[in-house]
Design brief:
Number of helices: 17
Number of domains: 2
CATH topology of the largest domain: UDP-N-acetylmuramoyl-L-alanine:D-glutamate ligase
Helix content: 40-55%
Shape: elongated
CATH superfamily of the largest domain: Ribokinase
Number of strands: 18
Radius of gyration: 26 Å
Bound molecules: ligand NPW, adenosine-5'-diphosphate
Strand order of the largest sheet: 1-9-18-17-16-15-14-13-10-11-12
Distance between the termini: 20 Å
């Protein structure tokens, strides 16, 4: 898994690499500019595209100047370079690259007035005004320029980060450049994974600029990005001579009169994620649907005289999808939490816990909560932004010794040891009802098979998103049923990669 570093740690990685590899900073800048240009050429394929490269006074601007020279070298014949030289202080590497540009006889236009940019007919703007050196809010000429770049409504490609975008920390009242794409150096910025980043960029790509990997891995950071190699390492292939008993028995306490589908979806996901046996504890009225739709799955009718002793036989228990908020379900939840066993808690079970904080306090360590934004805020109070929501999730996970899977496009898996694993898979085609029920089924099946709680959470969330990504290659909308059916193919794909 990738150790995601803060901007300050990245500066240290930068300095360490310069020293360790005996590479001057100007050469590192050249590497960064070359890596940017490689991706830029895939994005802007027509060499006669009219391009404006707007460069600030620091190293981000220095990158911009190097990019202008390299684009000219690649045959991009219609580039204009604008210098946003509002500040007297220019970085050394900026000045070297300015001299190199002049040597290459490429003209530059100082933006003594921001409005000069308005006359440019460029269809693509490269934003190299300010990068990760941003250390105060945009004001004055920088703000006017950032506003103009966004208002011109061209395709904006930002170098490293859009001007005005903080790599980490709360993203409130964003007033910087709105980019279509940010081509970031070495690692994605933490804030790319937060929904508020939508104000600043539509998408991002990351290019490797060869910073010292060992140094990056050795830095202490609670932020991790799950990578395909992690999943391949975690996933255990099925064994010779194994049988259904080898892969555990998953129980899903789910479904109600009008939300029986949630139980079926979770059960379908558990079945296809490989639980040896799956049982659904559902109202009697759901039996025909279950037996018809999923003949492999067993039923435990949820009647008033259901004895709590029966739960002993299951290796993993989830409660919540489509459960309903009735008093008898609240009572059942209380009884199950009273067993002091780790549980997967989703949907209505989370909503019941929101009003019964006394039972929430009794939740066994090693449990997994899977809230979406609203469920999370009902449980732990309202949050004004995602940065503070994730901070609360991590604190709660540590204090309660549980895992909190805070769901979104990029789901945050908060572990009891304080690590926060960001999941990179998943896409908007998956934004439809029942998707969370499928995730609950996946997690429960992995726990039943013996994965540790942390591994099940990281692996399950990744699998869910990766399956959605595969399906989204051929369809604009992915349904929860389709996703559940497709899980074995994702598993197979990962297992093939291990061989
Ligand atoms: N390893 C890497 O990641 C590599 C990074 N590289 C590149 O370096 C970039 C970072 O460059 P950088 O440190 O020179 O800062 P940059 O963003 O150009 O800003 C310049 C100066 O502006 C100032 N300033 C700040 N906020 C301001 C504001 N609101 N309004 C006005 N001024 C403001 C502030 O100076 P101050 O005012 O504090 O003196 C700041 O120092 C990075 O994004 C990437 O493109 C690659 O070349 C190589 C490898
Ligand atoms: N835009 C998106 N990108 C990636 N994943 C998404 C997106 N929208 C929803 N999902 C995923 O789908 C699931 C939705 O969960 P939830 O809201 O609980 O669904 P439901 O209650 O309908 O079952 C989460 O795992 C979430 O990460």
């Amino acid at each position: 898994m990738k150790n995601l570093l803060s901007a300050a740690q990245m500066r240290e990685a930068d300095a360490y690499t310069i020293k360790q590899q005996a590479i001057p900073s100007i050469d590192l800048m050249e590497r960064a500019a070359k890596a940017f240009v490689q991706v830029f050429m895939q994005e802007v394929t027509e060499k006669d595209t009219s391009i404006a490269i707007v460069c600030g006074p620091g190293n981000n601007g220095g990158d911009g100047l190097a990019i202008a020279r390299l684009l000219a070298h690649e045959g991009y014949s219609n580039c204009e370079v604008f210098l946003a030289s509002f500040s007297a202080k220019q970085s050394d590497d900026y000045l070297i690259n300015l001299a190199r540009l002049k040597e290459a006889k490429i003209a530059v236009t100082p933006l003594d007035e921001v409005a000069r940019l308005r006359k440019s007919e460029a269809t693509v703007i490269v934003d190299a005004i300010l990068g990760s050196g941003l250390n105060k809010p945009l004001t004055g000429d920088f703000l006017a320029l950032a506003t103009l770049v966004s208002e011109l409504n061209r395709k904006v490609i930002a170098v490293d980060v859009p001007t005005g975008f903080y790599a980490e920390g709360q993203l409130s009242h964003y007033n910087g450049v709105k980019a279509e794409l940010a081509i970031a150096f070495q690692q994605p910025k933490l804030n790319f994974f937060f929904p508020e980043s939508v104000q600043a960029l539509a998408r991002f790509k990351v290019v490797d600029i060869g910073l010292d990997q060992d140094f990056i891995a050795s830095q202490s950071s609670r932020w991790k990005l799950t990578e395909p190699a992690d999943v391949a390492r975690l996933l255990v292939p099925r064994k010779n001579f194994s049988h259904k008993g080898t892969y555990g028995h998953a129980l899903l306490i789910a479904g109600n009169e009008t939300t029986m589908g949630a139980a079926l979806l979770a059960a379908r996901a558990s079945l296809h994620t490989g639980a040896g046996l799956t049982t659904v504890c559902l109202p009697q009225s759901g039996l025909i649907a279950l037996n018809t739709a999923l003949p492999e799955v067993m039923a435990l009718p949820r009647t008033v005289d259901l004895s709590i002793d029966v739960f002993d036989q299951f290796n993993a228990i989830a409660i919540g999808p489509g459960l309903g908020m009735e008093t008898e379900n609240e009572r059942l939840l209380e009884q199950i939490i009273g067993l002091k066993r780790p549980l997967v808690i989703d949907a209505d079970a989370l909503n019941l816990l929101a009003k019964r904080q006394d039972i929430l306090a009794e939740l066994a360590p090693g449990s997994i909560l899977t809230p979406h934004l609203k469920e999370f805020d009902r449980l732990f109070g309202p949050h004004e932004n995602w940065w503070s929501r994730v901070a609360t999730a991590s604190e709660e996970a540590q204090q309660r010794k549980i895992v909190i899977v805070l769901k979104n496009q990029y789901t945050f898996v908060c572990l009891p040891d304080g690590e926060i694993h960001i999941n990179p898979t998943g896409n908007p085609a998956m934004a439809s009802g029942g998707m969370g029920d499928v995730l609950t089924g996946i997690l429960t099946a992995l726990l039943a098979q013996g994965y540790t709680v942390a591994d099940a959470a990281v692996l399950g969330v990744y699998l869910h998103g990766a399956t959605g990504d595969e399906l989204a290659k051929k369809r604009a909308v992915v349904s929860a049923s389709q996703l559940a059916l497709q899980i074995p193919k994702t598993l197979q794909k990962i297992l093939k990669e291990i061989k």
